[in-house]
Structures are given as C-alpha cells and as structure tokens.
Amino acid sequence: MASPLGSEPLHRHCDGSGEGHGGCQGRALQRRAAHRRSPHPGGRRRPRARGRGDGHGGGQSHQRHDRAVRRLLLSLVVVLAGCGGEAPIIVGVASSMAEAADELASDFGQGPVEVSVAGSQILVSQVREGAPLDVVLTADEATASELVRLQVLATDPIVFATNRLAIAVAPGNPHAISGIEDLANPDLTVVLAAPQVPAGRYTAEMLEAAGVAVTPSSLEPSVRSVLAKVQLGEADAGIVYRTDISRGDVAGVEIPDTVSPVAEYYAAALATSAQPETAAAFVAFLTTPAARALLAEFGFSP
Questions:
Q1: Is residue 84 located within the same domain as residue 129?
Q2: Rg of the Cα trace of the chain?
Q3: Both 146 and 282 in a single domain?
C-alpha cells in the first residue's frame, strides 16, 4: 500500500490539478451548499453515463439552468447559515471528482456541506495531522486502506463510484493513436501520472498487464497535470480518466474495459467528526439513485 506523503493544511490548500502529492499548487477549492429537499428523493431516473458537455436537446439545458438557479439560492442560504446557523460538515474530496462533488454537496438535503479538494494522498496526510474533516472521498483502495490503518474512520470505507482510463490526445488525433500499444512509439511525446498517485498506479497496472512498455517524457504529480500538458500541446498523448476527457481542448481515445482497470472511489465518515450523524448521512446519500444519477452525468459509473 502506498504511504501518505507530506501533510498539508486543510484550509487554503489545493493540489491545483488532481491527485497530486507534495508539489501541490494553486488555491483551495472550497464551496458551500445548504439544505435542498429533492421533490423526488431517491427517485431520479439515471441518465446514460456521459461527460459534462455531452448533453443534447432542451431537457439537459433546462436541467442545468434549474441547477444554476438552485445553487444561487443555496449560496444565499449559506450566508445566513454562516451567521449563526448550522455549521457545515467538511468533505475532503479527491480532485478527480471535484466538479461532481460540488453538485453532490448541493443536492444533499440533510445539512450544509463544505467541499475541500485535494489529492488523495494529501487527504490522508491531512487526516493524519488532525484536520477537521468529517467525510473523506478518495480515488483508490490504497489511500482508503491507509485511512483504515490509521484507525480514524467511523465505519469501513464503501465504494460509491467507479471510473476508467482513457488516452487524451490533441483535437483531431493528429498522430492517429488508436490504443495503448501506440504509446510505445518513441517518436511520440507521452506523459503519465506518477505511480505514487492513484491515476499513476492504475496506469502502471494496466501497462504491465498489457505488456506495453511506455517511456514517458515526464511523470506528472497528478492526472490533471497530465491533461494540462496535452491541452497545452506539450505532449502528444497522456493517460487520464475517462471523466477528464470532457473538460475541454482534448480528444479521447477509448481504452477497452478488458484492458483498463476499474478505478474505485471510496467514501468514509471520520470517527472524529463533530457531526457524526450528518457525516454518516452524507456517505449513505452517495449510494442513492439520485446521487448515482448525478455522478453519471459526469461520466462516473456505480
């Protein structure tokens, strides 16, 4: 199991781009959401899994408009909550799920939620150092198991979402990359996530199982860094999560399910939470049909 890297403070911290470690940059992504009662709790039909930008027709546009209006109203409620109202629970979130977690916080109907985004290793280090997190969402089993070993969890972690790997290439796929075997071409500039982070571990596992030897031009501290290098034209290709492909300025080459490992996301409430009932309720909410439908909108699977 991977051991956690250097600790970082919870507040005003962010890995800046993804599942990073000690080289974290950027400012914290902390967002608040307050009470919202779903008119049909647990009853939304699950849409097909797709990226954030893949919607078609007026239905999804209307849905996003409603959500934007709702979040504006919620922000006003949070201001009032901050003036003597109920304190939010703090959910530490692996940065590859940052956008989805923001929406989950908005849709949680049992109390205000503050999202604190960092790499999975950073989250483990924050917990080790006593950061006031109530719930942790990590991006692989190794980091979840480390939390178990620290004996800081109220219950065992649960898997609430999965992801797969994909190849990010420039728009139009100018090098005609069709699979991971093509990444062994020495004429290509390929970047990969470092093996110390979840995306890097999944990538190394996949390449080893497939017998493909890739010599990367760099090993990046996060999957977001891999994506950024492809977006900026500094790399011809990089291996990222499928959910990253829709974030813009890249095209995706699918890696078959028979080749790509399943990336599992784990959730657990901390035993040190000042609001244990709300923390446990948030973890339970992640497995409801409503939460899974929302996750599917971002490309995650159950």
A1: yes
A2: 19
A3: yes
Residue 193 β-bridge partners: 220
**Total length of the chain:** 302
Q: Edge to edge, what strands does the sheet with 237-241 contain?
A: 218-220, 190-193, 237-241, 165-169, 251-254
| pTM attached to this predicted model | 0.72
Joined tokens for residue 227: 């994506």
- Which parts of the chain register pLDDT below 50? 1-65, 68-83
Q: What is the pLDDT of residues 194-223, one digit of tens each?
A: 999 999 999 999 999 999 999 999 999 888
Contacts of 293 (CB under 8 A, 6+ apart): 44, 45, 46, 47
Exposed/middle/buried for residue 195 (C-beta within 10 Å: 0-12, 13-18, 19+) = middle
Report the distance separating Cα 128 and Cα 130, nearest Å: 6
Domain that holds residue 52: 30-162+263-297
User: Are 237 and 267 within one domain?
Assistant: no
User: Can you state the angle between helices 223-231 and 198-210, rounded to 10 degrees?
Assistant: 80
Phi, psi of 119 (to 5 degrees): -65, 155
Q: Is 9 helix (H, G, I), strand (E, B) or coil?
A: coil
